[in-house]
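Let's do one together. I've listed all components of the complex below, 646 residues spread over two lines.
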Amino acid sequence: MRVHNRIAYAFLAPYLLIFATFWLWPIISSFLISFQNTRVNPWRFAPSMNWGRLVGDPAFYNALYNTLIILVIQVPVMIALATVMAVFLNSPLLKARPLYRFAFFVPVVVGEVAYAAVFRLMFSADFGIINKIIGTVGISPVSWFDNGTAAMALLIMAVTWRWAGYNAIIILAGLQSIPGDVYEAATLDRVGKVQQFFHITLPLLKPIILFCIVLSVIGTMQLFAEPFLITNRGGPGGATETLGLLLYRQGFTSLNFGYASAIAYTIAALAVAISLLNLFFGRETK
Amino acid sequence: MAGLALTNVIKRFGALQVVHGANLDIEDGEFVVFVGPSGCGKSTLLRMIAGLEDVSGGEIAIAGNVVNDVEPSERHIAMVFQSYALYPHMTVRKNLSFGLTMNGNPKADTQRRVAHAADILQINELMDRRPGQLSGGQRQRVAIGRAIVREPQVFLFDEPLSNLDAELRVQMRVEISKLHKQLGTTMIYVTHDQTEAMTLADKIVVLRTGRIEQVGAPLDLYDDPANQFVAGFIGSPKMNFLKATIHAVGQEGVTAALIADPSVRLTLPISSRPDIGSPVILGIRPEHFSDAGTGEADLTVAVHVAEHLGHTSYVYAGVSGEPLIIERPESRHAGDQKTLTVGLPAKRCFLFDAEGERLR
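Okay, and this is what the predicted structure of the assembly comes out as:
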């Protein structure tokens, strides 16, 4: 039995080695680094330096504020949209269903740089199609990249476009697991389609929607590519700088790994806290 | 309460026709059972009555009103599904009251109806549980309760007992029968189990491949089946069928000789006049064999195996390769011998032509 175990661990060893080196150790290491002054050479143990700075850093609060704004606006909008898309995809009246399913999912597989470039072109103040379209209904052109609020709106739209389809596919799987005869029973109970949606579909989808929210919260807390690529490194003037971007700036531009590690742990802690809150408020009442 | 009338009802799924012109009258307060093998169209017919499937042709009338284009919710029917179809996130109480609440029924009346249904089905102690916390039988009661609170004109049951174990099925069968007596409402019940059909129904509708084969009271179908299919479907164990040919046609009736043993000839007092030599099927139920020498003919069979149920025994036997089941009441040694000779009482035998139609 023991020999068997040793052979099993020998087979697992390459994976465990890579897992420990590139996953486990960085997690431990960055926690230790967050207590170091990494602006001197060699690094010195300074437990309150990075964490102390975090508490009073306006750049951190700005990034936190931006991230929470995206979280509060984008996640609910996207999940609502994804639910509507899933219901649409699940409709028996829909023809060419695989085509729509593909169309909704395809943003996820598009490369971040490519989609960011397309969004920059579409939202260009001078020759972007979006300003042309809103111009046709009499709205004056918006400086999407120069106006902080507009840039934030653009970011929210981009992230929603990219991830709504992905969530819709997950919610669709949940919808398809609801037995059809429950709806038939409701129909015979004289419950209308809209009432069925709010009183049967939504409550039964709750665990799936919660799962999507938790995934989205984690994703939003780590949001980096969109503000980096679309709104030009969190511009204008830090108006779209997220925690992920601040971490990158501190770690890989200023090479201040201690502070970046403290930010990383804060992001992780916030993601866990918000996700737990979600799960707590969404739990089944016994 | 209301009666129903199906007139030449047809159902097609694309090019495939699954119900072929069903005609049926159901009296007010009657308990009607649709019975037939899988795929015979019985559930489809029930779902058409409920309005969950469109009618491709013909008319369905409830209480004299054609309901082909009436929404399911407006047909004043309630349905109990095979899978129960309870709302999994609601308590039993909410499951019962949900439809009424959504329709703005006065709260006091809803409470009264829910309490009444709970009393009838004895589910008072389950009211705050969810379906996931109930056994199969309890869920079935709740599903029936949900139908009761609607106070419908017609109850529809779609194989409601098929997910229950044998013991519970018998218990629920009795309860559904009691419920029908108590409420007096028209009930239509779909099953593939002929025992359920026989025990519950005022009227049985036997279906095969989308066609109604015979309609009648359970014992009428048992005693007087219209064709070989109904004869084989109604009764358990099923009727034995032996190949035979017409040996003679005379004033006393038709004499058939078994192909398996041509010396066994039996004259049935029927007025049909089939051609001599034409192939027929002789049908006799396992319970209708008599002791050797007491019927109009004797048949000797090879005994394969015997099942002793205490009060009776079933002998599985064969004659020249044709299988037979013979019931021998109070006979605990029926399987001891290699052969068994039994009597064939002519008045208990049926003749069917080559197409399976009854020769009368």
